[in-house]
């Protein structure tokens, strides 16, 4: 597992770089989201005839942007990331393009790639939680939308939780690890539960029609329904591949742990994956820029 972090002027990305072998996890994670959204790409329905300009911020391997473009051939889709997504994107349709941008860079850098008032729909997934200045990125997204344009933030809200309220189910190696990861991230200036703040920020910035809905991604095939069982199995595999990468840097920097301590803790958490009714809360937060923007 690669644990390199991508440096930026305001912080660092604590997730493994998809340019360093993490493509499989990112693409399988995308499949999980498809499953919990009943095969959709968004919580908010969008017509297949949609003709607007779409931006995918933190596009990763480019799979969301590529699939949205394929399903909406009249739309113009752009995916941006800190690294060039074209190196990993496959089967890119003609109405999909990719670019490089640092969401936490200067306003001038952002505006040169994402001109103000240029997009009808903006999407992010599990992106704000890895930034040190997430509110500024929400402001930039507002600025990038055309009047009447919409945004959908798909944000994981750590730590993991259990549907079993018993004390022993709330104190497992996996849940203890997840709580430590929130603490370690906070000491590094990252808020792994930033989803709870996004609706408030959106209201302050000027969004309207704000809605926040929580979904559960099961860790393991314990939830009812065939789609959720498949989602849980796939998500468990994602965590088997990625837990060390999510944790190593922030545990060392934030908690002062040695690499050996991190490996021991992660080993216990990974061995506990699939036990109990544990899930990852995912918030789908949507909003609209006023038609007559202030």
Automatic annotation (TrEMBL):
Q: Name one GO molecular function term.
A: methyltransferase activity
Look up keyword NAD and say if it applies: no
InterPro entries for the chain: SAM-dependent_MTases_sf (IPR029063)
Q: Which UniProt keywords apply?
A: Methyltransferase, Transferase
CDD domains in the record:
AdoMet_MTases (cd02440)
Signal sequence annotation:
none
Instruction: List GO BP terms, alphabetically.
Output: methylation
One of its Pfam families is Methyltransf_23
Which family is annotated? Belongs to the methyltransferase superfamily. LaeA methyltransferase family.
Official protein name in the record:
S-adenosyl-L-methionine-dependent methyltransferase
Provide the species name.
Echria macrotheca
